[in-house]
Amino acid sequence: MTKKIIDHETRTLDGNAAAAEALRQIEPEVFGFYPITPTSYIGEKFSKFVADGDVDTEYVCAESEHAALSICVGAAAAGARAVTATASQGLILMAEVLWNASGTRLPIVLVNGNRALSAPLSIHCGHDDLYAVRDSGWGQLVAKNAQEAYDFLVCSFRIAEAENVRTPLMMAMDCFHTTHTAMKISLEPDDEVQKFVGEIILKNPLLDIENPTAYGNFTKPDFYMEHKRAQLAGLENMRGQAEKVLREFAKKFGRGSGELVEKIGAENPEIAFVAIGSVCATLERAVEKLGNAAVVRPKMFRPFPSDELREKLKTAKKIIVLDRCSPCGAEWAPLGTEIRNLGLDAEIRNGIFGLGSRETHANDFVELAKNFENLPENKPHWINLREEK
Question: What pLDDT shows up at residue 150?
Answer without folding.
Answer: 98
